[in-house]
Amino acid sequence: MKIGAALGFNLIDYPGKIAAVAFAPGCNYSCPHCHAKPILGAAAPINEKDFFNYLTTVRDWVSGVVICGGEPTLQPDLLTFIRRLREANLAVKLDTNGSNPAVLARLLAEELVDYVAMDIKGPRHLWPNLTANPGAENAMLESMQLVTRFPTYEFRTTVAPVLRGGEDITFLTVPEMSAAAKMLVEVTGGNTHKYYVQKFVPRKDGLVDARLESFPETPVQLLQDIHAEVLKYIPNTQLRG
Ligand code: SF4
Questions:
Q1: What is the pTM of this model?
Q2: Which of 19, 97, 119, 200 has the fewest beta carbons under 10 Å from its own?
């Protein structure tokens, strides 16, 4: 599998585990607030063999691997890579934008992944603005249903600035996040999901849309107001910094 970057190991990216992190380059979305896509597009790839060698050196501490991106499900040999991780008795967490339900279905069928985290970009009517991929709507809806069948899963939304046309760029609003939460409940048929509402953090070193580099972080008050609203629909909603 193509690995665009590897991030040592940490306790944050895989809740409850010390995990190494592998970033897959390439994404079929161009979310304006994304910093990963530009960085991974410019990074020199890491040899898969070197990554497994690294895992051997940290095996006493590391019990899992997080595969994120970019969009890992675009990698043609993702399943082969994950099978190797499983053979090494490592737990696997996959982060996805939900654009590839066929791959999620295969991962489910082979019971290859322990934990899936899927981005809910915002309310459905804003997906084209938030992903720059208007054709992925049905795929994302199907993925939302599939994700709930993995042993552990989470949904998450970054409260990001939205390009609303011209120079009109403003953060997702409380009513928009309310609509996103209601949609999540309707599409999945449940409300017990772990759902994280995350702040947008600007970066000066390259976002997909450079206009967002000078935006502030998501205001704390907005995050708190969104949290209070979304809790009405999904009781296990948490704010993540
Ligand atoms: S934030 Fe958007 S563009 Fe960036 S990796 Fe995720 S899905 Fe792709």
A1: 0.96
A2: 200
